Amino acid sequence: MFIAMNRFKVVKDATAEFEEIWRGRDSHLDEMAGFVEFHLLRGPEQEDHILYASHTVWRSRADFEAWTRSEQFRKAHSRAPSTRPLYVGHPQFEGFERIL
Predict the structure, then answer these.
(1) Residue 19: in which H helix or E strand, if any?
(2) pLDDT tier at 82 (50, 70, 90 boundaries)?
(3) Angle CA 87–30–3, to nearest 5
(4) Sorting pLDDT into bands at 50, 70 and 90, what band is 83?
(5) Where are the alpha helices (DSSP H) in 1-100?
(6) Which of 58, 52, 61 lies closest to 30, judged by CA?
(7) Model confidence over 33-55: pLDDT tens digits?
(8) Domains of the chain by start residue, with CATH
(9) Which of 30, 34, 67, 82 shows its CA 20 to 30 Å from the CA of 55?
């Protein structure tokens, strides 16, 4: 199993827009071999942002890497960006392989 996470430091007054973008997106994840599940998580609030994480579970790292090279990935990430900054900094990717 492989878990792929992206952490987003979302500007406090942009959280509704950020969540709506995720709710309205066409992810195409369910078209991919090895995709297990997806979650968007809202985390702790800091002085200048609220932490969010997108969390996908894959059967293997190879399945995740195939997703990142796929036409479905390009389609899922082609949505026009917001007209204002939503993040503090850039999203941070973290990948984890199951040990136990």
Answers:
(1) helix 15-23
(2) low
(3) 55
(4) low
(5) 15-23, 61-68, 71-76
(6) 58
(7) 999 999 999 999 999 999 999 99
(8) 2-91 (3.30.70.100)
(9) 82
